[in-house]
Amino acid sequence: MVRALAITGLLLAPAAAVSAPWLAPSALAPPARGSGPPAVAGNDDGRAVAAWSTRDGVVATLRT
């Protein structure tokens, strides 16, 4: 599931950059605690959402 979201994010990110060139790109940085790579997806209004699952089971999200 996470891998599918990550792949989807890779496909959506370039499309979002082309459709909204006036938005400055933002770096997606993981939370301070240890975590794996983020799963990135688009939400209903076309903005990117990244989610990380940390080792202790906490899910952190970043919405642009």
Keywords for this structure?
64 residues; three-stranded antiparallel sheet; alpha+beta; 23% strand
Question: What percent of residues adopt helix (DSSP H or I)?
Answer: 25-40%
Low-confidence stretches at least 5 residues in length (pLDDT < 50)? none
Order of adjacent strands in the largest pleated sheet: 1-2-3
- Rg computed from alpha carbons, rounded to a whole number of angstroms: 12 Å
Count the domains: 1
Taken as a percent bin, the fraction of beta residues is 15-25%
Compute the number of strand runs: 3
Structural class by sheet pairing and helices: alpha+beta
Shape: elongated
Order of helices and strands: HEEE
Tally of helical segments:
1
Sheet of most strands: 3 strands, antiparallel
Determine the N-to-C terminus distance.
Answer: 22 Å
Whole-number mean pLDDT: 61
Architecture overview:
With 64 residues, the protein is an alpha+beta fold. The protein has one domain (1-19, 38-64). The chain has one helix and three strands. The chain has a three-stranded antiparallel β-sheet. The longest helix is centred in the N-terminal third of the chain and has 18 residues, at 2-19. It is elongated, with a radius of gyration of 12 Å. The two termini are 22 Å apart. The model has no long low-confidence stretch (mean pLDDT 61).
